[in-house]
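Milestone M4 deliverable, item 7.
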Amino acid sequence: MRGDGLSMSLTYVRELARLHSRMRTSFLTSPYNHGSVRIGLLRCADGRMRSFNRAMNIQPGMLFEMRAIGAKKDMASYAFRDRLIDWLGQGGRHYAMLLTYHFDCETRELGCAGHGYDTQAARDAQVELAHDIKVGFRGRIHPIVAGYDTRLEEVVLHGEAGQTMRTSDLGDNRHQAMSSLLGLYPSIPMDVLEQLVPLLLHNAGHVESNIGAGARTLIRDHEEVGVVIGRRVGWITDEPDALHAAIIEDTTLHPHAEISVGIHLLQSNLAAGRIPRHNGAFIMTCIPYFRKQDMREASEVAARRWAQMARQLVAKNAPEIQADLTYLPAVICEETRELTLLEGPSGARELFHREIAQVVPSVSCDQVAA
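Output delivered:
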């Protein structure tokens, strides 16, 4: 990687580690994970969705999150079904899943590339998935289809009878918002809707303050400087100061297609000058492991293999960007959220250790791979 690219990647990894630590704390204490209601979120891997959690006041680890190119998931995928089944085993009484798609209210070409910039196709895909989840899990999971206007940073809700309502139209207070939600979702239990009200009202206020201040926090075009592929990584772009990256979570057993999409994205960004050539770009492959199973080595092998696959695909399909890329295979402990960087440029691991020790003092030299 050229120029400031190494520094950029290590700063990113430092931020990643800090947020992992924050995620574990917030996940363990969040009422969304300990009450009778559990809320999930499926969203697109597009880096322009980075503003979604901030616009909804969703803190790291608050919700059960999954991301994919175009937010495309299918009940035919046993991996997707298994993740939902595991989620249902967390002890909640009611489960709700926000199935999102994104669009730009003014420019079609700034919509979802995963659906060919076709907003209707993106919406229809989530409506179909909502039907399959509701039928397949016999009503145990309540799916809610929601659009996200990346220009206004506003959420658009789609009701059970086909109604559409922006958060700005929900009402000025909690009582009015609950009344609006009951009209949209008469079959969803009230305690589920009560958990959603604060998030939706925050979004309404966020949109109003953005318009009033003339704020434009949105990065309108694809400007991702990196791609992160793996599990437990989706929230790392949700802080305002985090790097702009595309997140691809819950990949198939063979992530060839996902890695190829990520490479094409970086290739396009570099060719168009949206990433400065002297900074370069990165690909991180992050694989989780359970300490109690004593199987970290297997995850390390997988992370390195995914990185090797990325190198091979770049050499074959995008050789002109080989010199611009840094590869960062990593593993993360499911129980402690400890992150271990397995490879990197010369001096990367040592600098990584010095940086991470400032924010996660419990990390020792032994936890940074030799």
